[in-house]
Amino acid sequence: MLRNVPTLHHIVFTRMPMSPQHSTRRSCALLATAALTLSGMTLATASVADAADATNSTVAAASATHVASNAQLTWSLKNSFIRYVTGAFAGGSVEVTGGPSFNGSTFFWQGADGEFTGANGTISYPGAIHFTAHKGELDITYANLKLVINGTQGTLVADVKSKGYNGSPDVDATNVNFATVDLSGITFSNGTVSATDAPVTLTADGAAAFAGFYKAGDALSPLTFSADLAEKPAETPTPE
Length: 240
Hints:
Blueprint: H1 20-63, E1 65-75, H2 79-86, E2 93-97, E3 101-102, E4 107-117, E5 120-133, E6 138-150, E7 153-162, E8 171-182, E9 187-189, E10 192-202, H3 204-208, E11 219-231
Antiparallel strand pairs: 1-4, 1-11, 2-5, 3-4, 4-5, 5-6, 6-7, 7-8, 8-10, 9-10, 10-11
């Protein structure tokens, strides 16, 4: 029979003291963990700060006033109407003065200007378009065109003078909301604002100024425009 063999409850496990080398490695590991934690906190704080700065910059840009220059507009008004006026039956003509040019089917404006605050603005296109046909019985002038932009919605505004034709009344009015423009494709990028082939729809007021040829809701030719934007300098207070 074996004697003096310790049973399990007689065995005492004694924790051996760490060697200096092991203690040093553990301290370094703890320091490294703390450093990584602080680094992560710093990066997170920096990210939040950067996001806040970006948000503030966006808000500032959105509320800033910009001058629009070198504005260009390409528009055919209504292709079928131009073909009708200049065709053999109507025997008419199209004349442009004071701003736009015309190549036989499309009108072009260059060098126009305007002003924007955020995504809202107005660009003014000077000059006039004059249609005559049927030996002067049809006589329509559109002048001082403006593109008024409110976000993704636009309005074409013009001064209109139209001789009554085929029972339609005479029209002689300024600042007529002639057509609406779908600007869902508008872009603000690299100091410019632009839209390509934006759909244009005739309004009731525009139809009245079209000598009864078209009705409200009819599609006109799409338009393309662009303009350079530069932040408007702050006004210097006038000394009293």
